[in-house]
Every structure is written in C-alpha cells, then in structure tokens.
C-alpha cells in the first residue's frame, strides 16, 4: 500500500494568512524551507487491488490532487466534519466525471449527517449521464470497530478532539490519527502493534483540541511503533528543528511525502456496509 501525505498542516495551513507584507504568518517556521509550506491535512491510499482511497476533502484538495498526479478514486473516508477536512468536497465532481459514477463516502453516521447538512445536493441521487455537481453515496461505519472499504478490512477507533470526537483509521499495521488530543483505552488497544503511525502534533506546548509534542512522545512510549510521522502541524513546528530534535523513531511529514507500508489481504466476500 502506498500512502501519500497530501497535506500536513493545521486548519489555517502554513503560512497562515496575513503577515506584515501579506505573504503569510510563518511563526517559528523558516520560510526558506520548502517543507514548512503545509496545506490542510489529508492523505491518499493506493491499495494493492487497484482501488484508491482519499481521506478527507480539504479546502486544498484540487491543488493536492493535481500536484500528486491523482486522477481517480472511488472511496473517501471522513475523519470528522470540521471545515478544514470537508470544505473541498465540491472538487470531487472532476473525479466523478473521470470514473463515471458516484463516489462512496465512508465515516461515522454523525459525521456523514453533518456533512450532508452542508452539502445536501452532493448526496442527492445521481441522474445519468452528466455530473453537473459532485455526487457521493453515504456509507456509515461504526464509531469503533471493523468495516470493509475498497475491498480491504479497516479498523476505525474514536478519538477525543476537543469538544467533539474524530475517527482514527487503521489498515493492517498502518494507522492515521489526525485531529486528536486524547486516546482512551479502547483506542489505544485498537492501535496496539501498529508499525507506521501518522499522528496529529499541532505544536510544542499543550493544546485543548490537538496533540502536542510531549503527548505524542508519551503515546509512542506506550505503543512503540517502528515509525511515527507527525502531521496537522502549525507554525510552531519548524521542519528543520524537528529533524534535529525529534527522537529517532519520530519524524515530521511534509506535503507530498510518500510511504510504502504492508497491507492486509483483501476481502474476498464483501462485508455489509450499507451505502445510500
């Protein structure tokens, strides 16, 4: 399975809008380092059976797909319904036109319901043959437990994200935990044995809704993944500083970073996920 980190920035990206000259607020991030330029958080999974999965539709999704040469996928997984993770949903109309069919949108029922209140027209039934709007089919998954997506077994686990919950996603020995500040015992159990973990680390000091550096180090000591990759990073997280100061098993992501990870065997009989 190939994993591409399309974006690894926080909700405002890096740089944030503003600055004395209008060209952005960089905080501690060195503007001269290209890997400090971060679009909003999203990843893309290319599976061994030829299926592709987009995780979240960030406001930057059009540029992310073009930059990484991505032209087709039939599945989207939503971690939660905050704007920096869903606001690019309209852009998948171009993908609809390429694949000539609706896209399946997976996520917790409460997440899909909230997205549907903002993009109700996207969830309306498709009338062949034209795509004058994006079209997706809602495929609710458990808040915690196993489900099938794109022909593979996945595990979803609940994460505390400030005042709401978000969904973490695991496939085989790979897991993705954006937008998380607390992990309960059940979720830590779901992550047991993970080897490659992409995890939220917004800044160096404590935050009410996002993990920070010390907390991620604590989780790493518990889970002991072979490789921990930080994402959803704000202007406090300079890429070069992290490369020089993080523990050996931790590293910062950058937009366009790719990973090759083992994937589980595909499912021969489709599990029951009802889409509408």
UniProtKB/TrEMBL annotation:
Its EC number is 3.-.-.-. SMART domains: Lactamase_B. InterPro entries: Metallo-B-lactamas, RibonucZ/Hydroxyglut_hydro. Keywords: Hydrolase. It is an enzyme of class 3 (hydrolase). Residues 39-232 form the Metallo-beta-lactamase domain. GO terms for molecular function: hydrolase activity. This is Metal-dependent hydrolase. It comes from Acetobacter senegalensis. The gene is phnP.
């Amino acid at each position: 399975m190939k994993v591409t980190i399309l974006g690894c920035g926080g909700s405002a990206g890096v740089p944030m809008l503003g600055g004395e000259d209008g060209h952005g607020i960089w905080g501690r991030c060195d503007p001269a380092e290209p890997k400090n330029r971060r679009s909003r958080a999203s990843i893309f999974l290319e599976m061994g059976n030829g299926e592709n999965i987009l995780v979240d539709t960030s406001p930057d999704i059009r540029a992310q797909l073009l930059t990484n040469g991505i032209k087709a996928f039939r599945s989207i997984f939503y971690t939660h319904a905050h704007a920096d993770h869903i606001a690019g949903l309209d852009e998948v109309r171009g993908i609809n036109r390429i694949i000539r069919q609706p896209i399946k949108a997976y996520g917790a029922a409460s997440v899909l319901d909230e997205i549907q209140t903002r993009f109700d027209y996207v969830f309306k039934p498709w009338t062949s043959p034209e795509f004058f709007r994006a079209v997706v089919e809602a495929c609710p998954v458990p808040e915690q437990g196993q489900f099938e997506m794109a022909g593979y077994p996945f595990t979803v686990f609940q994460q505390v994200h400030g005042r709401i919950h978000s969904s973490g996603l695991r496939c085989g020995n790979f897991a993705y935990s954006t937008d998380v500040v607390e992990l309960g015992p059940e979720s830590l159990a779901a992550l047991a044995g993970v080897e490659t973990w992409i995890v939220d680390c917004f800044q160096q000091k404590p935050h009410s809704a996002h993990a920070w550096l010390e907390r991620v180090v604590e989780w790493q000591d518990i889970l002991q993944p072979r490789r921990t990759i930080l994402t959803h990073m704000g202007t406090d997280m300079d890429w070069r500083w992290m490369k020089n100061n993080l523990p050996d098993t931790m590293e910062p992501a950058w937009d366009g970073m790719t990973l090759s990870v083992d994937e589980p065997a595909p499912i021969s009989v489709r599990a029951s996920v009802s889409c509408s």
